[in-house]
Design a protein that fits this description.
The protein is mostly beta strands and about 200 residues long. About 5% of the residues lie in helices and about 60% in strands. The chain has a four-stranded antiparallel β-sheet. A four-stranded antiparallel β-sheet has the order 8-10-15-12, with no helix packed on it.
Length: about 200
Amino acid sequence: GVRVHNPPAGSPQTKYRFVFDELETAHLAYFAASTEEGELAYVKSGPGTFDIVLPEALSPDASTDFRVHYSLIEAVTPYPAVMDQNERQNTLFVGSHVMYSTYRTVVQQTRIELPSTRVEDYTKRKPSKHSGKTITLGPYQDIAPFSVSEMSVHFENNHALLRAARVVREVEVAHWGNIRVDESYDLYNDGATLR
């Protein structure tokens, strides 16, 4: 979740700008924001930049909480790219220890949930911890705006890395009010190549 605090000397704020760094922007597939009461409206104001409309104007020296949900595609790659059939497939994720933000961040902690407990390696920045299928990064304190701290996680992932080569959606609307939707996908596994 995100907790936003408007400083005492600020003016009332009606939106919060959420940005992604260049790497995440290239892989961004889905974005949404919500509170306990429901979805929040947002405006995409540029590549990887979303202005989230707050439920009500945030007065000076006030705080509000909301959640951001997003999905990245093709952000995990097989590493090594070639393997024997009896080997375990490992994959590599590259990102940042800290969330990219236009604002100073007082404190941040990130949890990375993995498909298995086997982690070959990950970029350690104190404090960080690996336990079971979870890597916990932080809490990190007093992060400057637009900070990036490169991080990679090399982990076992024996699941297929599905990619869609082609997606077709056909919608048929009949004169008498019926609607029929057919979707077809040509999928392939973009995982490690077998020797």
